[in-house]
Write a structure and sequence with these properties.
It is built from eight helices and no strands. It is mainly alpha-helical. The relative contact order is 0.12.
């Protein structure tokens, strides 16, 4: 979470606030998968203790499918209507756009999110958590190593646009700098003539 937050922060305040809104939803989804997973722990444990590995696998699959279906349905709903969640937290158009964009990308993965959490608890019941812990370590390493690369590639066009804007602004500033101040310029002929007429003798 901290690594992803630091990566998102490079895109500005709106992106950071939008990510925060989406991440809060994920925090609320965890207890759903947690509840299903905790119920699966003793059932898988009893099946393993009785030597019935087939029943333990059925319990794990059923629990994982249930959790995946629950969280996946929420994710798909928010992909279609992100304002159902984002509208509770902000009225800023930029923040809402970033939060909606996050949910459209992350929402389809909520089902796998619930599946992974529940299978982790099922693995605890089986007394073997090497696979889920290893998967978590690989996921963290993937984000830590490749996250900055992806962010750099995504930020490059933005940097070019900003640099182009600064370059254009620099040309304009140089153009303005070459123009003499208003009080240095020679007045137009009509103004000069009028000034000569109004000059006291």
């Amino acid at each position: 979470m901290l690594v992803v937050t630091s990566l998102v922060a490079s895109f500005g305040n709106d992106a950071l606030a939008g990510y925060g809104i989406g991440a809060r939803l994920e925090f609320l989804l965890v207890p759903i998968a947690f509840g299903v997973g905790v119920a699966a722990v003793p059932m898988v444990g009893m099946a393993i203790g009785a030597g019935d590995a087939a029943r333990a696998r059925r319990v794990a699959r059923t629990a994982g499918a249930t959790s995946g279906a629950l969280l996946g349905s929420i994710g798909i709903l928010l992909v279609l209507a992100p304002d159902l969640w984002t509208g509770w937290f902000s009225r800023d158009a930029g923040v809402l756009a970033q939060a909606s964009n996050y949910l459209r990308w992350a929402g389809p993965g909520f089902g796998f999110f619930g599946l992974g959490i529940t299978l982790y608890f099922a693995a605890q019941g089986a007394g073997n958590v090497v696979a889920p812990v290893g998967a978590s370590i690989l996921r963290f390493a993937f984000i830590l190593l490749l996250g900055p690369v992806v962010v750099g590639a995504a930020a490059a066009p933005l940097g070019a646009v900003r640099a182009g804007g600064r370059g254009d602004g620099g040309v304009r500033r140089r153009h303005r700098a070459r123009r003499p101040p208003q009080h240095w310029r020679t007045p137009p002929p009509r103004v000069a003539a009028a000034a000569g007429v109004m000059r006291p003798s």
